[in-house]
Amino acid sequence: MKLSITVIGTGRMGSALAGSLLQSGYPTTVWNRTRQKTDPLARLGAIAASSVEEAVNAGEIIIVNVSDYEATKALLHSDAIASAIRGKLIVELTSGTPSGAREAAEWCTKHGANYLDGAIMATSDYIGTDAGTILLAGPREAFDTNRDVFRALGGNVQHVGEEPGRANALDSALLAIMWGVLFGTLHAIAVSQAEEIELGELARQWSATAPVIDGLVTDLIKRTSAGRFASDNETLSSISAHHGAMQHLLELMQFRGIDRSIVDGYDAIFKRAIAAGHLHDDFAALSHFLATGKQHAFDASH
What we know:
This protein is α/β, with parallel strands linked by helices. It is built from 13 helices and 8 strands. The model has no long low-confidence stretch (mean pLDDT 95).
């Protein structure tokens, strides 16, 4: 017999999670602050709980997908809920910080529950599909025991470590890449429009350029991991080449009245590295000019 699951929070993502569980045959109880949001799931066979306590009591696994950890605290941190979660598995799929995940894990284990903290690396339409990616951190045994449940949520659900903050840390790192691309695209659109370039042309040229950029990102991660910061015969991009091109972009944006706040931040990082004598190093050397305390150690070793 399949485990009973509770999903707390049935916004777009929570509804997708609950819907996939129902489709896979799991008895599913749902709760949402706005009761009407549970109605479509109830029509699919879910039980709509009238309170958080009722929802928690109904499930052997409790999946939480609300706005943030503060919302989770407001819903779960009571004596009644603390008693109800004993012996159960809490799966927190709410966006947050690594420190927030660690605090949540501490509270759950203190009250006798297992805890996995997760990051959903997908939009709601990917939930339940083979490409659906969810990162989970916490006790490996809790993950392995419930693989079938997680498989119902997506074909690429991964255990990324025992430390409960790991999934959210990876989430933040990957979002940093995503936002870099999205804001870069906004800048590209602004430049194209200012220079009267059709956006269809921008899209075509991006398709041709994307594999090059993907290769640069992969190389940057590999070189930083290996500690290869000086330029060598395999360098794909140096600080000097990128800094020179950045000045042209800054000049164009200034001339066209395009907001420079983000690219000025990039330029400030370039200038710190150049002032420290790293103009001709590999682009990977810039990694030492983002983290407090790393720059001096890097300069002392070079």
